[in-house]
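Complex 190.
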Amino acid sequence: MKNSLFTQFLRKPFMTGAICPSSPELAKMLVSGVGIETAGNIAELGPGTGAVTATILQTMPENGKFFAVELNSDVLAELQNRFPQLRVYNDSAAHLGKLIQQENMESLDLVVSGLPWAIFPPPLQDEILQAIYDSLAPGGYFTTFAYLQGVLMPNGMSFRKRLSRMFSVVEKSPIVWRNVPPAFVYRCRK
Ligand SMILES: C[S@@+](CC[C@H](N)C(=O)[O-])C[C@H]1O[C@@H](n2cnc3c(N)ncnc32)[C@H](O)[C@@H]1O
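Predicted structure with S-adenosylmethionine bound:
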């Protein structure tokens, strides 16, 4: 309970941005249609307590390389306990370029994000999106979710516009009503 997402939301609302972990249905939607089955190099941004991490590990190729980036040091111990094989950097997603170098990766085939975009100010959205775009291989995918109520917030709307300006293809998934709160996924291709 000490490090549940709800507790983290109470402690660090502007970093956590959610009171519940993503549902298994949303996690599946996040990794579908983005080539995870053949992705060589994968990164997850904002894994929190690992609701999506489990689905990535189940779906990715056995010989694929995978690491995660989580800013909140309070959840790291729980993540490492759940997934002892996972490499997690306690850092900001804005530093993704530096981290792929540390991983000896040239680029990423897939970036899976659990970041709370709608509560990020536009300059931070720009900084992190640019780091993601620069780290992706041509044809690589960026996949991220948005809560239904967040798309009407100014930052949610500006995030959608940024995606369309930056990526060659941006698709929206059907809404996952069984998630709390309901959410959908943006699948973006470089
Ligand atoms: C909405 S929670 C999602 C947790 C989990 N992925 C899920 O779907 O249930 C957002 C997570 O992003 C992390 N986060 C926020 N800003 C970040 C940043 N700049 N870099 C990396 N992680 C960040 C938070 O600490 C939190 O764990």
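The helical segments are 5-11, 13-16, 24-30, 53-59, 76-82, 96-102, 122-135, 154-166.
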